[in-house]
Amino acid sequence: xxxxxxxxxxxxxxxxxxxDRVVLDHGDRHRRRVAMRGSGGLDFLLDLPEPAVLEDGxxxxxxxxxxxxxxxxxxxxxxxxxxxxxALKRLIWHIGNRHIPAEIDADAVWIADDHVLAEMVRGxxxxxxxxxxxxxxxxxxxxxxxxxxxAHGGHHHHHVAD
Length: 162
Prior knowledge:
- The chain is mainly β.
- It is built from two helices and eleven strands.
- 13% of the residues lie in helices and 41% in strands.
- The protein has a six-stranded mixed sheet with strand order 2-6-5-1-4-3, with no helix packed on it. The chain has a five-stranded antiparallel sheet with strand order 8-9-7-10-11.
- Strand 5 (59-62) and strand 6 (67-72) form a beta hairpin.
- The longest helix has 12 residues, at 85-96.
């Protein structure tokens, strides 16, 4: 089985033959070694020297130089907003205090769907809307600096009913 032994980050992607893609949710984008099958049927072994976060738009480099595109799958998330910048900062602090992954934008935060956290946010004056969209959380202080090197503009998501 052909192996993918390194990640080509999307900001360094300048060409190459993309032969397939893998669509992975947030949990499945934290990997080191696992057998994978691309959407087009290519079987390969992800075999990285150390665990890494595969970001939306990255490519996995196969032994023969071909590339497999990494795409973030749509997931059920909570979109959190607040009536003011200060109120949003307070909500971000409370979410961060629970040590859960969060994607932070200028006027919203996205977290995995969790009814307990939704009630906490509402209790603190925020609004919560279930959405389905790719989840691209912050990498954290020890993530090596590359986790959020992309812009957040142009999010595509769908609001869903409970």
